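Posting this for the archive.
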Amino acid sequence: MSKNFLTNFEKKERVAYLVTLASLAMADGEVEEGEKQLIETICNDAAIDTAGKAIVISAVYEPEKITFSSYLSLLHNSDLRFHLMTDIILMVYADAEAEQEELEQAAKIRLQLSISQEQYDTLVKYVNTAKIFKEKGIIEGAFLKQAGLEDAFKKNGIPMEAFNNGETVGEIVTNVALSVVEKELKDTRAGVIFSVVKELGLFSGRKKRKKKKKKSKFGKFLAKLANTPVSHA
């Protein structure tokens, strides 16, 4: 997949994808120094204009003010819905063990995005299989074929472009932006901080969470997304 994969979609779809993803990915932690520049770089690479970029950045700093209905409505007929769903599944499984409540919310979101149960199950298998393959360091070439998932993707009508390297689109656009931002910040104080931020993760699985007694901010936003009324007109 080229680094400009998102530019295959209309601007409104790109903004909807990044707003939703950024809101969820950053829900559990404060925005660290360097992360705003990372978001801006991702937006630039996705050819999002100043107005669209401002919306995405606003979602990072004040996700509680985001109304998801219009964004989900824009995505439910777009192939980007499969990529957003996969990123959400990845975030749910970011911890060693996914929480049942978060799994239930993710299952509701698949309905919001007009994703069938078979398609959803295939994407869950993709995320879990990719994790195993990465841990073993055995991803070589076309991942879907190597992992035995190619037929399932074809059967369930899931576009395979951008899935064939074992990563989600969120992971890929973040890694591309990381390389740019890290180079720009090299030998600066922000660069030192950013090197730490990089290890925390952004779209490639939300920041590692401390053990908690109450529902996480991520869980609350996931529930908000799952219970958002969406027009499928």
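The mean pLDDT is 79. DSSP finds twelve helices and no strands in the chain.
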